[in-house]
């Protein structure tokens, strides 16, 4: 419990501060924060005299320390707690000690409840109250959680710290916890709550989502990936989101956020772009220089196999970096002592060298290296961290010569993290830490295998019956380090980076040159690209130009119609596919059918023309590529077509699309399967069932990085071309039949006849436009994105133009 007190030593001097009674020790924090005192129960002799709580006798220095309460009436309660905890510390077995401490805690929690006098408003209505623990570095604090229709409260059982309340938050659900991130305008700090059951955690989660109107739910890894790929969030922000989703928290030193090393030069006076070492590190663990040795040991080792005897993130490593701003945590972790001076965080360059060449040091970095607060690099508290073997005192961290001061160091680190080179390779590091190279055969191939205890689910602690073994195992897991929860099981796609100048040819980089947003590095975009961007930015302002009802049946294809139609590049021939299994060629000049291609055993559902080749998709489960043999297909003669390739599917093919470069083919089947093909090979590159029914349309993004598909399951699905990973699924209110898109924004036509403008990053419809009186079945857009034509079951075609 927290009380004002006095500390009396031999000289009878008095020091005011706070007393924390923990499960295994008493911690006294003086108000001047010069020194923290740790008194373990095994060294405490308890007496009771007036308002004195406990004298302390330390065998070596023979000093007596007495705590004197300045809050009368609390002495009896405090002495009882101390006696109970002292008895627990005297038990021989660790399991018995833990069980007794837990029993003491539960008995005290049972006698208390949430104090509703702490509500911020008298009109607040409580919906749920339960017991939980607030997790902070190396300490958990039990108390009561209460949620009302306005706020979320945590009230510690011991009133230290004082109760917290949150009314605006982002929250992340962990295994048995809930992390709450307050907005910048909130007066409270972020809190990490651990519950005693997942049921209570889930119930609180439900009430937050139901009653707290201002809450913001955490997005999925796929959603953040899409935002990162498109440049809407920075590398730093994306890594923070991934750490959050992988249950990493700054409130838990055993699962602290992990960040990569991105600079390999810590000895030059100017920071040059030398990507060789950094590139290798982003592709493989930081221990790559000793990979052969570790691989041999791995192969010769009996089960369980592992390559590294320690981890890249552990409480000791985190406090190695943060000792100057959080000395109390290191003292707590190391029984009241700092580490030896030569093993402290003395130099950035030395630390990098040890990690790269030492063979036993695998430390990655922490977010602070890319933040704005440089205090962790300076000994602002004037701590006595010892003297090194050379005689020098441990003070501020030694920085690389290219950094003028700690703030300049952090600025260059931030700029390096966001530069083009790192952006293009960061996905490889993500594969190691959060992705498919974290476990299994891919981890072995990447030399990325750590001790089984470090992986989620690596040890089933609930199956360990012996309490001493169970506590020892949990302690080992917490102190050894833990691998983040695996977020991706397929290769992570690369970031889409602007067409910058080649940075590797630059001899040295200033701060401005490192920035990916430097004006001198921006690529030139022609007027056509600018006009496309402008058109898409005004897609929610489509204006109807004209409407024509000239067909007898539903309009199913548009070319500037049958199952599908297109105009050949010479504007002399219209090609139409038909439900009667044929493809027809119509001469515009002669006004009649010129030729017929009978190439399928079922309806021809979709056709495409590229580089004098015809691509046909059919419900007979094939896609075929045909080559026109005639020199001039527009001549009034019958034309011969040779079959160049055939791509077989397991179900009828309903749609297809070619990548802008014409090298990749995407197909969608009646059973919801999307398949990606290399035109030069009949074998699929990637195949996944991304819809629960027929796929109506598939289309590559203009940069060929993604494929968008819509189906009769009312979903819009974005798939990464490089990895075949499904990275976004948007559920529409109604089935969408057709669309055009620019990679970020989608214009789609639905069953109701409306046109919808979608923002894929937010997964929301940003505008709706009334169009047809029935389903919109086809859509065409010119290359400049300045004209749109839609067709529908109402037998109409409508011409649209964006208004500027």
Automatic annotation (TrEMBL):
Residues 213-495 form the BEACH domain. PROSITE patterns: BEACH, WD_REPEATS_2, WD_REPEATS_REGION. It comes from the Eukaryota. WD repeats lie at residues 597-627, 646-687, 688-729, 769-804. Keywords: Repeat, WD repeat. This is Neutral sphingomyelinase (N-SMase) activation associated factor. The lineage of its organism: Eukaryota, Metazoa, Chordata, Craniata, Vertebrata.
